[in-house]
Amino acid sequence: MSGSPKYSSVRVGARYAEREAAERRRRAEERRARERRRAAERARAAQAAAARRERASAEAERRRNEIARREAESAARRRAEQEARVARAQADQLRADERGLDEVRELIAQAQRSGARTGIGALERRFAELRERAARGEPLGDAVEELRGRVVSLRPAAAGARTGDPAVVLAALEHRLSVVGGPDGAALDTEGHRRCTELLDRLRATAGQDGQVRFEALLGTVEHALARHAATVGEAREAAEREIRAARRREAAEARERERAEAARAALESALAEAAERLDVVRPAAEGVADTAAELGDRGLAHEIEDAVRAVVEALTARSADEALDAVAVLEGRLPDAERRLDELELAYQRRRDLVAALQDAMTDEGFAFDGGEDQGGSFRLHFTRPTGATYETTVATDDDGTPVLVYHVAGEPDVTLYAPRGEAVCDTTEALLERVHEALGGDDGFIPGELTWDGKPPGRRAEPLPRETYRTWTNP
């Protein structure tokens, strides 16, 4: 029987249980205090995160207001520029109208000098009306040219010229080209401006007396080219204005997109900072739980907490704010229960250590020599030798429910069977010896082992105590 492992479950004595219960309550209060401190630190981290978000929101609002202000200023500037361009154009047009009216007045005077009488009164009244409108700053549009045409049509048929002074007509046409094109007319309609210039040069070449017919014939072509050039320049200016407006809209959209991107970046940084701060609150405790659980042999608990910490770190490294916040919340939720489980592991460890100390004392008191032992995290292994040379390897472990368990591996024990006088029940010496050791483990103030058992033990079998003198004789042959 000496080679068969022997087992005994151990329960703690009443006073030991009371001390352990008091220690469990103390640890529970410490856990609650730690969790309160962590909750306060999380609250401070949340307040800091809220303050960052508020600052980021205020900064985003400031940037939005700044963008809106710049857009409003730009719009006001564009309106002012547009109004200034309109005002300049109106002023230029008014000056052109005034010059055109002066030319028409000269044409009316020439018509009168040439003998024309019919319709002169109506022309003069129309001229006076246009002059009054020009004096009020009203644009006259084509009214001046229309009046010019009416005056020219009154010339005597034999006069041989559309106007008595081609130089005046040329000056009017050149003025129209400068007004129509403006400073950027040549750039906006290069081909049209070039053609108008060439036609005016040709018209100037025919302005002599001998070229009156050609002058009259070419005059309509010049006027048509000027009208076409004016239309092309106007369309080009409209297109340029549309492009400018589109570019400004794009700039505004890009500015808003930059603002949105900056707001998103600020929100990301704030969330990552919050997750990192919350991790800093629980990480030391979490890593302490994982390390101690591994030392005490509970690799499952150690891996659970290590994985939870790793999930937060990886999310932070990947700059995934939502995942980091979710992962740190999981870690925060698991830590209190992990600390409770760790406290139970440490209580069980201390229970094993106390049992080891009591067992070592009891076995050495019974004549065993202690040869050392190993702390295996979840259990202790002790080595004892009897004077006879028999070895006892004792494992002090814990069941899943926390109950201490003693396991003996005995080698070299002869298992001598002794018979008491008058034929009393037989008694195995190894069993009896271990029963004596168990009796010395402290009782109510320490540990109370249960029945010693082994594979193949007969039902109901229990060793009877050996007489002291018999035991001593057996242990000291």
Q: Given the structure, what is the number of helices?
A: 11
Percent of residues in helices comes to 55-70%
What overall geometry do the principal axes of the alpha carbons give?
rod-shaped
* Low confidence ranges: 157-163, 416-427, 466-477
Radius of gyration: 56 Å
Distance between the terminal alpha carbons, to the nearest Å?
A: 20 Å
- What class, by secondary structure content? alpha+beta
Q: What does this molecule look like?
A:
By secondary structure, the chain is an alpha+beta fold. The protein contains eleven helices and nine strands. The protein has helices at 14-113, 120-135, 143-153, 166-181, 185-188, 190-205, 212-295, 299-317, 321-365, 429-439, 468-475, and strands spanning 6-12, 369-375, 380-385, 391-398, 404-411, 417-418, 427-428, 447-449, 453-454. The strands form two sheets. Strands 1, 2, 3, 4, 5, 8 and 9 form a seven-stranded antiparallel sheet that branches. Strands 6-7 form a two-stranded antiparallel sheet. A hairpin with a 4-residue loop joins strand 2 and strand 3. The longest helix has 100 residues, at 14-113. It is rod-shaped and about 165 Å long. The two termini are 20 Å apart. The model is unreliable at 157-163, 416-427 and 466-477 (pLDDT under 50).
